[in-house]
Specification:
Two copies of one chain form a homodimer.
Chain A: H1 2-13, E1 16-17, H2 18-24, H3 41-54, E2 57-62, E3 70-75, H4 77-88, H5 99-105, H6 112-140, H7 149-180, H8 185-188
Antiparallel strand pairs in A: 1-3, 2-3
Helix pairs in contact in A: 1-4, 2-3, 6-7
Chain A binds a DNA duplex (30 and 30 nucleotides) through residues 1, 3, 17-19, 22, 39-43, 45-46, 64-71, 95.
Amino acid sequence: MSLSFAILSVLVANHASGYDLTKRFNPSAEGSVGFFWTASFQQIYRELGRLEEKGWLQAQTVQQDNRPDKRIYSVTELGKQHLRDWITEAEKSPPVRDELLVKLNAGYLVDRPAILVKLKMHQQQHQQRLAIYEEIERNHFQNPETLSEFLQFSYLTLLMGIHYETGWLTWCDRAIRFLEMPVQEETKR
Amino acid sequence: MSLSFAILSVLVANHASGYDLTKRFNPSAEGSVGFFWTASFQQIYRELGRLEEKGWLQAQTVQQDNRPDKRIYSVTELGKQHLRDWITEAEKSPPVRDELLVKLNAGYLVDRPAILVKLKMHQQQHQQRLAIYEEIERNHFQNPETLSEFLQFSYLTLLMGIHYETGWLTWCDRAIRFLEMPVQEETKR
DNA sequence: ATGTTATATTCAATAATATGAATATGTCAA
DNA sequence: TTGACATATTCATATTATTGAATATAACAT
């Protein structure tokens, strides 16, 4: 369900083709939904078809000289109303599923260096992700007080990303230090 | 895939029936996998069947006087080895999918009070969750330095939970303050 | 007795996601 | 001209996840 609304929310701000959308739903694409909702191109095209059928979207075929033709989608009034309703609805808390924590929880089954490697890799990934967010902040959100309404909400999602990654990083630090901690004297003897 | 290993990792520590497992995979169950991997009972029973077929688990039927009979599962050597291999493997970063952020990103489409209600509900939920984690910490992890190897890893997953919820909470605070901030003088006129 | 709750499990349908393959047009560089 | 990219979309299949329904035993309260 959410994917369709995520698509609507992107299209309501900017008309786009399926191909354009696939890029915005990529987790590593700059400044787009991909940061908090990912989808494959196959998913997106299927969903676009459904939404058009329901009349929530309308499409316009655009001939191009130097590219294959494309279909540009835009949100209808009906679609926009459904989007607004969905946003207002209460959402149930998403199912938690974290593979790393499942593995870590059973970490006593394998040797410690293997676990440490894993944690350090995660640390790096979160550092990189945080760096991206902070660059976006520097480039586009220097003065949060003066943002347009539209950008205020973008800013809040960016802030969440920063807090999220920071949380992971401080945990990674603590976890690594904890596991590298020398064994207590009593247990050594 | 992960679910099967999550099941193995629980069973390797304690033999259990399908019914026992369903409780451990509940997100609100105290001190269990449910905190980082949830699954419904139907999923669990199906997975148990598959794992038994593959010989990674073995089951023993236990007659009970005051209850329906049950099947107690335990992990075979084969299963244990596969579990260890899986833990050691590198995991790909999980797909990001956060419904709240999708909604918030399009928050300019609805009125601000509706968004604030949403944020405050989330704040409450995260507060409650954090309180649970902190209680577990107080009750079972007062002296992290003296924990058994097994419990050291439990402790680390608990720590992650605490950092995660703390990150959400500080963000909720900032986001709410930001949206409640009085409109700038220029934009008012 | 009747209804509710807890234990214990199975089957079926549907929805969502992931993966692989295929097709078509056009640019650009070796 | 061959190969590698980038644009643009479709179809098929497989795996997971969600939801609903069903069955059975037994405790416990009204």
